[in-house]
UniProtKB/TrEMBL annotation:
Major location category of this protein: cytoplasm
Function: Catalyzes the condensation of (S)-aspartate-beta-semialdehyde [(S)-ASA] and pyruvate to 4-hydroxy-tetrahydrodipicolinate (HTPA).
Encoding gene per record: dapA
Catalytic reaction(s) noted: L-aspartate 4-semialdehyde + pyruvate = (2S,4S)-4-hydroxy-2,3,4,5-tetrahydrodipicolinate + H2O + H(+)
Binding site for pyruvate: 47, 204
Official protein name in the record: 4-hydroxy-tetrahydrodipicolinate synthase
Active site (UniProt): 135, 163
HAMAP family noted in UniProt: DapA
Keywords: Amino-acid biosynthesis, Cytoplasm, Diaminopimelate biosynthesis, Lyase, Lysine biosynthesis, Schiff base
InterPro entries referenced in this protein's UniProt entry, alphabetically: Aldolase_TIM, DapA, DapA-like, Schiff_base-form_aldolases_CS
Description of how the protein assembles with itself and partners: Homotetramer; dimer of dimers.
Class of enzymatic activity (EC top level): lyase
Length: 293
Protein backbone atom coordinates (compact mmCIF):
# COMPACT_ATOMS: atom_id res chain seq x y z
CA UNK A 1 0.00 0.00 0.00
CA UNK A 2 1.39 3.37 -1.06
CA UNK A 3 -0.14 6.14 1.03
CA UNK A 4 1.91 8.72 -0.87
CA UNK A 5 4.22 11.46 0.32
CA UNK A 6 1.67 14.00 1.60
CA UNK A 7 -0.98 12.73 4.00
CA UNK A 8 -3.40 15.21 5.55
CA UNK A 9 -4.83 14.55 9.00
CA UNK A 10 -8.23 16.00 8.15
CA UNK A 11 -10.31 18.21 10.42
CA UNK A 12 -13.92 17.29 11.17
CA UNK A 13 -16.25 20.17 10.22
CA UNK A 14 -19.01 20.96 12.71
CA UNK A 15 -22.17 23.04 12.38
CA UNK A 16 -23.37 25.69 14.82
CA UNK A 17 -24.75 22.96 17.09
CA UNK A 18 -21.49 21.03 17.23
CA UNK A 19 -22.75 18.25 14.96
CA UNK A 20 -20.87 16.97 11.92
CA UNK A 21 -21.42 19.27 8.95
CA UNK A 22 -21.67 16.75 6.13
CA UNK A 23 -21.97 19.30 3.32
CA UNK A 24 -18.78 21.01 4.44
CA UNK A 25 -17.06 17.66 4.95
CA UNK A 26 -17.58 16.87 1.28
CA UNK A 27 -16.18 20.27 0.30
CA UNK A 28 -13.11 19.86 2.51
CA UNK A 29 -12.39 16.42 1.03
CA UNK A 30 -12.54 17.86 -2.50
CA UNK A 31 -10.40 20.84 -1.49
CA UNK A 32 -7.70 18.73 0.15
CA UNK A 33 -7.47 16.37 -2.81
CA UNK A 34 -7.82 18.81 -5.69
CA UNK A 35 -6.29 22.04 -4.39
CA UNK A 36 -3.91 20.95 -1.65
CA UNK A 37 -2.74 17.77 -3.44
CA UNK A 38 -3.15 15.30 -0.57
CA UNK A 39 -2.27 11.72 -1.46
CA UNK A 40 -4.15 10.30 1.53
CA UNK A 41 -6.48 11.56 4.23
CA UNK A 42 -6.49 10.45 7.86
CA UNK A 43 -10.08 10.49 9.06
CA UNK A 44 -10.71 10.81 12.81
CA UNK A 45 -7.15 11.42 13.84
CA UNK A 46 -6.12 13.96 16.46
CA UNK A 47 -6.76 16.84 14.06
CA UNK A 48 -10.20 15.37 13.40
CA UNK A 49 -10.95 15.62 17.15
CA UNK A 50 -11.11 11.87 17.63
CA UNK A 51 -11.30 12.08 21.45
CA UNK A 52 -14.70 13.78 21.26
CA UNK A 53 -16.18 11.80 18.37
CA UNK A 54 -18.54 8.94 19.19
CA UNK A 55 -17.87 5.56 17.58
CA UNK A 56 -20.98 5.91 15.42
CA UNK A 57 -19.72 9.27 14.15
CA UNK A 58 -16.33 7.79 13.34
CA UNK A 59 -17.82 4.96 11.33
CA UNK A 60 -20.10 7.40 9.50
CA UNK A 61 -17.09 9.60 8.70
CA UNK A 62 -15.06 6.64 7.40
CA UNK A 63 -17.91 5.57 5.12
CA UNK A 64 -18.64 9.13 3.97
CA UNK A 65 -15.00 9.85 3.13
CA UNK A 66 -14.67 6.63 1.17
CA UNK A 67 -17.82 7.32 -0.81
CA UNK A 68 -16.94 10.93 -1.54
CA UNK A 69 -13.26 10.45 -2.35
CA UNK A 70 -14.14 7.73 -4.85
CA UNK A 71 -10.58 6.48 -5.11
CA UNK A 72 -9.00 9.89 -5.70
CA UNK A 73 -6.91 9.42 -2.57
CA UNK A 74 -6.37 6.78 0.09
CA UNK A 75 -8.55 6.87 3.21
CA UNK A 76 -6.80 6.01 6.47
CA UNK A 77 -9.07 5.45 9.46
CA UNK A 78 -7.99 6.59 12.90
CA UNK A 79 -8.91 3.52 14.92
CA UNK A 80 -6.34 3.44 17.72
CA UNK A 81 -7.02 4.00 21.40
CA UNK A 82 -5.63 2.98 24.78
CA UNK A 83 -7.81 -0.12 24.81
CA UNK A 84 -6.54 -3.02 22.72
CA UNK A 85 -9.97 -4.64 22.58
CA UNK A 86 -11.70 -1.49 21.40
CA UNK A 87 -8.95 -0.71 18.89
CA UNK A 88 -9.39 -4.18 17.40
CA UNK A 89 -13.14 -3.71 17.23
CA UNK A 90 -13.00 -0.31 15.53
CA UNK A 91 -10.27 -1.42 13.12
CA UNK A 92 -12.34 -4.43 12.08
CA UNK A 93 -15.42 -2.26 11.58
CA UNK A 94 -13.41 0.18 9.48
CA UNK A 95 -12.05 -2.72 7.43
CA UNK A 96 -15.60 -3.87 6.67
CA UNK A 97 -16.32 -0.41 5.28
CA UNK A 98 -13.39 -0.70 2.86
CA UNK A 99 -10.86 1.83 4.18
CA UNK A 100 -7.35 1.67 2.74
CA UNK A 101 -5.54 1.54 6.05
CA UNK A 102 -5.67 2.39 9.74
CA UNK A 103 -3.70 4.76 11.98
CA UNK A 104 -2.99 3.40 15.47
CA UNK A 105 -1.87 5.80 18.17
CA UNK A 106 0.39 4.73 21.03
CA UNK A 107 -1.89 3.94 23.99
CA UNK A 108 -2.35 7.05 26.09
CA UNK A 109 -2.93 7.62 29.83
CA UNK A 110 -2.38 4.03 30.99
CA UNK A 111 1.37 4.28 30.15
CA UNK A 112 2.15 0.74 28.94
CA UNK A 113 5.66 -0.69 28.87
CA UNK A 114 7.50 -1.27 25.60
CA UNK A 115 6.46 -4.93 25.69
CA UNK A 116 2.88 -3.89 26.38
CA UNK A 117 2.95 -1.58 23.37
CA UNK A 118 4.38 -4.32 21.20
CA UNK A 119 1.67 -6.77 22.22
CA UNK A 120 -1.03 -4.12 21.75
CA UNK A 121 -0.07 -3.40 18.15
CA UNK A 122 0.69 -7.03 17.40
CA UNK A 123 -2.80 -8.05 18.55
CA UNK A 124 -4.44 -5.42 16.35
CA UNK A 125 -2.31 -6.44 13.36
CA UNK A 126 -3.31 -10.07 13.78
CA UNK A 127 -7.00 -9.11 13.85
CA UNK A 128 -7.07 -7.39 10.45
CA UNK A 129 -5.73 -7.51 6.91
CA UNK A 130 -5.52 -3.72 6.70
CA UNK A 131 -2.16 -1.99 6.21
CA UNK A 132 -1.42 -0.29 9.54
CA UNK A 133 0.47 2.88 10.42
CA UNK A 134 1.77 3.34 13.95
CA UNK A 135 1.48 6.81 15.49
CA UNK A 136 3.99 7.91 18.10
CA UNK A 137 3.14 11.30 19.63
CA UNK A 138 4.57 11.42 23.16
CA UNK A 139 3.59 15.06 23.60
CA UNK A 140 -0.01 13.87 23.75
CA UNK A 141 0.21 10.29 24.97
CA UNK A 142 3.07 10.66 27.52
CA UNK A 143 4.14 7.10 26.65
CA UNK A 144 6.56 6.88 23.72
CA UNK A 145 7.27 3.83 21.63
CA UNK A 146 11.01 3.32 21.23
CA UNK A 147 12.80 2.96 17.93
CA UNK A 148 13.67 -0.61 18.92
CA UNK A 149 10.02 -1.55 19.54
CA UNK A 150 8.98 0.14 16.30
CA UNK A 151 11.57 -1.92 14.43
CA UNK A 152 10.24 -5.13 16.02
CA UNK A 153 6.75 -4.19 14.89
CA UNK A 154 8.01 -3.35 11.39
CA UNK A 155 8.68 -7.06 10.92
CA UNK A 156 4.92 -7.75 11.09
CA UNK A 157 3.77 -7.83 7.44
CA UNK A 158 0.74 -5.54 7.67
CA UNK A 159 2.41 -2.93 9.90
CA UNK A 160 3.73 -0.90 7.01
CA UNK A 161 4.52 2.58 8.34
CA UNK A 162 4.89 4.85 11.32
CA UNK A 163 4.01 8.48 11.96
CA UNK A 164 6.83 9.64 14.21
CA UNK A 165 6.63 12.78 16.32
CA UNK A 166 9.27 12.01 18.96
CA UNK A 167 12.45 13.36 17.35
CA UNK A 168 14.55 13.49 14.20
CA UNK A 169 16.94 11.12 15.98
CA UNK A 170 14.20 8.52 16.25
CA UNK A 171 13.17 9.05 12.62
CA UNK A 172 16.80 8.39 11.68
CA UNK A 173 17.06 5.22 13.75
CA UNK A 174 13.84 3.75 12.39
CA UNK A 175 14.60 4.66 8.77
CA UNK A 176 18.06 3.12 9.09
CA UNK A 177 16.91 -0.14 10.63
CA UNK A 178 13.50 -0.90 9.12
CA UNK A 179 12.79 -3.23 6.20
CA UNK A 180 12.87 -1.51 2.83
CA UNK A 181 9.11 -1.68 2.46
CA UNK A 182 8.46 0.04 5.81
CA UNK A 183 7.87 3.77 5.54
CA UNK A 184 8.57 6.47 8.09
CA UNK A 185 6.44 9.61 8.09
CA UNK A 186 7.14 12.72 10.10
CA UNK A 187 4.22 13.90 12.19
CA UNK A 188 5.68 17.39 12.63
CA UNK A 189 5.16 19.81 9.76
CA UNK A 190 8.23 21.86 10.66
CA UNK A 191 10.36 18.71 10.40
CA UNK A 192 9.16 17.63 6.96
CA UNK A 193 12.31 18.52 5.07
CA UNK A 194 14.78 17.52 7.82
CA UNK A 195 12.96 14.20 8.17
CA UNK A 196 13.18 13.53 4.43
CA UNK A 197 16.90 14.22 4.63
CA UNK A 198 17.42 11.46 7.21
CA UNK A 199 15.28 8.86 5.45
CA UNK A 200 11.61 9.62 6.05
CA UNK A 201 9.23 8.93 3.19
CA UNK A 202 6.75 11.75 3.75
CA UNK A 203 4.63 13.77 6.16
CA UNK A 204 1.31 13.33 7.95
CA UNK A 205 0.41 16.98 8.02
CA UNK A 206 -1.82 19.55 9.67
CA UNK A 207 -0.57 22.60 7.76
CA UNK A 208 -1.39 20.89 4.45
CA UNK A 209 -4.96 22.12 4.95
CA UNK A 210 -3.76 25.54 3.86
CA UNK A 211 -0.30 25.09 2.28
CA UNK A 212 -0.44 21.49 1.05
CA UNK A 213 0.30 22.29 -2.59
CA UNK A 214 3.44 24.21 -1.58
CA UNK A 215 4.49 21.37 0.71
CA UNK A 216 4.09 18.98 -2.20
CA UNK A 217 6.32 21.24 -4.29
CA UNK A 218 8.93 21.23 -1.51
CA UNK A 219 8.88 17.44 -1.28
CA UNK A 220 9.11 17.10 -5.05
CA UNK A 221 12.02 19.53 -5.22
CA UNK A 222 13.95 17.60 -2.60
CA UNK A 223 13.31 14.25 -4.30
CA UNK A 224 14.47 15.73 -7.62
CA UNK A 225 17.76 16.77 -6.05
CA UNK A 226 16.86 20.45 -5.92
CA UNK A 227 17.95 20.76 -2.30
CA UNK A 228 18.51 24.50 -2.28
CA UNK A 229 15.07 25.08 -3.79
CA UNK A 230 13.48 22.78 -1.25
CA UNK A 231 15.25 24.65 1.55
CA UNK A 232 13.93 27.98 0.29
CA UNK A 233 10.38 26.60 0.26
CA UNK A 234 10.87 25.21 3.76
CA UNK A 235 12.04 28.61 4.98
CA UNK A 236 9.03 30.29 3.36
CA UNK A 237 6.54 27.84 4.87
CA UNK A 238 8.19 27.58 8.29
CA UNK A 239 6.25 30.49 9.90
CA UNK A 240 2.99 28.69 9.06
CA UNK A 241 4.30 25.35 10.34
CA UNK A 242 5.14 26.92 13.68
CA UNK A 243 2.45 29.57 13.82
CA UNK A 244 -0.48 27.16 13.74
CA UNK A 245 0.71 25.76 17.06
CA UNK A 246 2.23 28.86 18.66
CA UNK A 247 -0.07 31.84 18.17
CA UNK A 248 1.36 33.46 20.30
CA UNK A 249 0.94 30.91 23.11
CA UNK A 250 0.60 27.18 22.33
CA UNK A 251 -2.89 26.54 20.94
CA UNK A 252 -4.17 22.94 20.87
CA UNK A 253 -4.64 21.50 17.39
CA UNK A 254 -7.06 21.96 15.61
CA UNK A 255 -8.34 25.18 17.22
CA UNK A 256 -6.01 27.50 15.30
CA UNK A 257 -6.34 25.50 12.09
CA UNK A 258 -10.14 25.64 12.12
CA UNK A 259 -10.05 29.37 12.75
CA UNK A 260 -7.67 29.81 9.81
CA UNK A 261 -9.87 27.72 7.53
CA UNK A 262 -12.95 29.71 8.49
CA UNK A 263 -11.07 32.93 7.73
CA UNK A 264 -10.16 31.48 4.32
CA UNK A 265 -13.82 30.86 3.51
CA UNK A 266 -14.34 27.28 4.64
CA UNK A 267 -17.28 26.92 7.02
CA UNK A 268 -15.74 24.25 9.23
CA UNK A 269 -17.16 25.55 12.51
CA UNK A 270 -15.49 25.50 15.89
CA UNK A 271 -14.10 22.81 18.15
CA UNK A 272 -15.77 20.59 20.73
CA UNK A 273 -15.06 21.05 24.41
CA UNK A 274 -12.69 20.70 26.17
CA UNK A 275 -10.96 22.46 23.26
CA UNK A 276 -11.90 26.10 22.81
CA UNK A 277 -11.61 28.62 20.00
CA UNK A 278 -8.58 30.96 19.88
CA UNK A 279 -8.57 34.07 22.04
CA UNK A 280 -8.78 37.53 20.47
CA UNK A 281 -5.00 37.96 20.47
CA UNK A 282 -4.49 34.46 19.06
CA UNK A 283 -7.10 35.09 16.37
CA UNK A 284 -5.36 38.31 15.37
CA UNK A 285 -2.07 36.43 15.09
CA UNK A 286 -3.68 33.76 12.87
CA UNK A 287 -5.23 36.38 10.60
CA UNK A 288 -1.84 38.01 10.17
CA UNK A 289 -0.26 34.61 9.53
CA UNK A 290 -2.62 33.62 6.73
CA UNK A 291 -2.57 37.12 5.21
CA UNK A 292 0.99 36.38 4.14
CA UNK A 293 0.04 33.24 2.19
Amino acid sequence: MDFGRLITAMITPFDENGKINWAETSKIIDYLIEEQKSDSLVICGTTGESPTLHEEEKLELFAFALDHAKGRCKIIAGTGSNSTEHSIHLTQEAEKLGVDGALLVVPYYNKPSQEGMYRHFEAIARSTNLPLMLYNVPGRTVASISAQTTLRLAEIPNIVATKECASIEQVTQIAAGAPGSFRVYSGDDASTLPALAVGAYGIVSVASHIIGASMKDMIRAYLNGEVAGAAKLHQKLFPVFKGLFECPAPVPNPSALKYALNELGHSVGGVRLPLIDPSESEAAFIRELIASL
